[in-house]
Structures are given as structure tokens and as C-alpha cells.
Amino acid sequence: MLDIVRTPIRVAEPVSQLSEDYMTLPLSQLFQQVGELAYNAMLAEVYLTPKPGLVDRQSNGAHDDMDVALFQRSANAIKPFLSQFVQRGWMLSKGNASDLLTGIRGIGINCERAMFGATFGVNTHKGMIFSLGLVCSAVGWLRGRKNPLTAVNISATIAVAGKGLVLLELEPKSLLPQTAGEKIYSQYGLTGARGEAESGFAMVMNYGLPTYQLCRQCGQTDEQALAQVLLTLMAHNPDTNLVSRGGLEGLYYVQQYAQELLLKYASTDVGFERAMVQFDDALVARNLSPGGSADLLAITRLIAQLVSM
Ligand SMILES: CC(C)(COP(=O)(O)OP(=O)(O)OC[C@H]1O[C@@H](n2cnc3c(N)ncnc32)[C@H](O)[C@@H]1O)[C@@H](O)C(=O)NCCC(=O)NCCS
Ligand SMILES: Nc1ncnc2c1ncn2[C@@H]1O[C@H](COP(=O)(O)OP(=O)(O)OP(=O)(O)O)[C@@H](O)[C@H]1O
């Protein structure tokens, strides 16, 4: 059995897609390459600039305890765990996809711990780890099952893995909800990262991926396509990060602002960047940060690259 933990991190050109056919690629290379794509997706998200309310190269958005250097350190701490998610997914493929999340929890918890160690307790990537863990393990699981690597298969596998998650983790077990996610669910019925997982990443499948693929087909750069995807996600995603900071009012403010910008501009238009900087100013003034949409942006990029062969 291959020991991914002891495999040194290879310093190489970042991969932009799987180097060979996913079904015939040697397993060790598959684990490593998918992990690298996931790492690149995290970096593509944080370095995309400008991003309203979020940390990027020019602004810390609505965050006074984070900057882009902290995100880079956080991503580096997470990196070794990403290929472990893929490998564990492959190992679990003899069983049902419904056992996938339970099977990767331990890696997820260790990964979260490494992230908090690298950031001295700041939550840079908690939601991201949860979502990336599911996608990476789904890829390993599909390979073990000899199923084609398609967006629909990744989504369906995650939907099975996440089935019942909202009921199990968000339905109140005691009178008082504890975590931010539990509180928001009990107050507003919003299901956050867990609901998105249980839907098989419906926001990514219905908005993120079609937008990214269409933009690329029209000749847009990766950055232009990602900017268009972020705005589209912000216009539709019931992001619990926005609710925890600004209530439903904060969520609707961001969704409406993003919808209006989408009507006025495409990411290739002159004036788009300035409008995004103004959107950033508006969100900083209201202490709003669309962290859930940032996570889904990275997931969109990752799935797009995984299935681009
Ligand atoms: C489910 C998680 C996200 C718990 O977080 P919490 O209770 O605070 O839930 P909540 O839904 O409010 O969101 C937390 C984060 O998810 C992201 N998020 C918010 N809304 C959304 C959304 N609609 N879609 C996707 N992501 C979202 C944001 O980054 C946010 O900060 C996860 O961190 C977790 O369970 N961690 C425990 C460790 C673990 O089991 N890890 C294994 C995963 S592989
Ligand atoms: N570029 C980014 N900037 C800010 N947040 C991001 C970015 N990319 C992803 N995120 C997501 O946003 C989440 C952090 O959001 P936030 O800081 O609002 O959470 P918190 O620290 O738990 O809450 P608060 O800051 O309100 O006390 C992370 O879990 C992460 O997955």
C-alpha cells in the first residue's frame, strides 16, 4: 500500500489538468495530481483580485485578522491532506458512497487542526476543507469503481455521501443550537455548507460550472471566467457566512447587488474591475464576506479542471 504521508511533496510545475487518462493513470500519480489541482484551486481563489468582501492580493476585504500571505500559509498546511482525501476515497470504493463522509472525517479534522496551527487559530479555510475533502474523495471513489470522471458523477457521489447530513447535524439535539451553522439553521432554515454538499453541490452544477465553461469557450482567460463565476455564485448562493455577519438582510443585500452587476457588466467589460472594487468597499463598510461563494468558486475551478480531459 502506498504511503502518501511519507511521500515528499514534489516541487514541480503546477498541473492544470490530469496528465493522462484518469482511468489508466497510476494510482499514486492520480492521488498526487488531484491533490495538486485542489491546491491550485485554493490558490486561484485567494489570488483572484478584486473580490468583494474577501481577502485578495489588494485588499483584506471585511477581514482584519487575515491577509493573502496567511491564506498562502494555510493552503500550504492543507496541501498534504488533499491527496490523502483522494486515496481514502479510493480505499473506500469497495463500500457504498454513503460511507464516504464518515470515512474521511478523521483526515478532515486533522487537516482543520493543521490549518488552525498554521494560522494561529484564524479560520481561513474551514469551509473550504470540508468541500474540497468531499470532491477529492469522490474522485478517488469513482476511480475505484471504474466510473467515468464527469461532473455529474462527482456531484451524484457527493449527494449520496451527504445524504441526511442536514437532518443529522443541524436538526436540534438539545434546546440550544451550538455552532454558527446550527444557529442559522434554527433561525432561518438555511443549511450552509452541509446543505450544499447534500445537494451534490447544486450551486456549482447549476451556476458555477456552466458559467466557467461558457466563459472559457468564448475565449476568456481563467481569471476572467473565475470573476464571472464568483459574481454569479454571489447572486444566488444562500451563503451562511453572510447571514452570520449580517443576518438575512446582509445576504439579500449581496445577492441583489451581484444580480444588478451581472445585468450591467460582463467580466471582460471596461468598468467591471472598478465596479468590483466599489462592491468590495460596500461590503467592507457592512462587514460582509461571502466566504461560502469563495469556497464554491474553488470547487468550480477544481471540477472544471478534473473533467476537462
Ligand atoms: C460543515 C462544516 C463546514 C461546519 O461548519 P459550520 O457549522 O460553521 O457550518 P456553516 O454551514 O455555517 O459553514 C461554515 C463554512 O462553510 C462555508 N459555507 C457557507 N455557506 C456555504 C454554502 N452555501 N455553500 C458552501 N459553503 C458554504 C463558509 O466557508 C463557512 O465559513 C465543517 O467545517 C465541519 O463539519 N467541520 C468539522 C470537521 C470535519 O468533519 N471535517 C470533515 C470534512 S472533510
Ligand atoms: N478569500 C477568502 N477570504 C475570506 N474568506 C474565505 C476566502 N476563501 C474562502 N473563505 C471561506 O470563508 C470562511 C471564513 O469566513 P469568516 O472569517 O467570516 O468566518 P469566521 O472566522 O468563522 O467568522 P467571523 O470572522 O465572522 O468571526 C472560511 O472557512 C473559508 O473557507
Shape: globular
Using only C-alpha atoms, the radius of gyration works out to 19 Å
For the record, give the distance between the C-alpha atoms at the N and C termini, rounded to a whole number: 28 Å
Count up the helices: 13
What is the tally of beta strands?
Answer: 0
Main β-sheet description: none
Helix content: 55-70%
- Which regions are unreliable across 5 or more consecutive residues at pLDDT < 50? 1-12
Spell out the helices and strands N to C: HHHHHHHHHHHHH
- The structural domain count equals 1
| Strand composition percent | under 5%
Structural category is mainly alpha
Bound molecules: dephospho coenzyme A, adenosine-5'-triphosphate
Mean pLDDT value = 93
Describe this structure in words.
This protein is mainly alpha-helical. The protein has helices at residues 27-47, 68-91, 100-118, 126-144, 151-161, 165-170, 180-188, 192-198, 202-217, 222-236, 240-264, 272-285, 291-306. 47% of the residues are buried. Residues 1-12 have low confidence and may be disordered. The protein binds dephospho coenzyme A and adenosine-5'-triphosphate. Dephospho coenzyme A (COD) is lined by residues 104-105, 108-109, 112, 126-127, 130-131, 133, 179-181, 184, 192-194, 196, 237-241, 291-292, 295-296.
Helix and strand topology:
Layout (H helix, E strand, L loop, with lengths): L26 H21 L20 H24 L8 H19 L7 H19 L6 H11 L3 H6 L9 H9 L3 H7 L3 H16 L4 H15 L3 H25 L7 H14 L5 H16 L3
Helix pairs in contact: 1-2, 1-4, 1-13, 2-3, 2-4, 3-4, 4-5, 4-13, 7-11, 9-10, 9-13, 10-11, 10-13, 11-12
Protein name: Probable 2-(5''-triphosphoribosyl)-3'-dephosphocoenzyme-A synthase
Catalytic activity: 3'-dephospho-CoA + ATP = 2'-(5''-triphospho-alpha-D-ribosyl)-3'-dephospho-CoA + adenine
Keywords: ATP-binding, Glycosyltransferase, Nucleotide-binding, Transferase
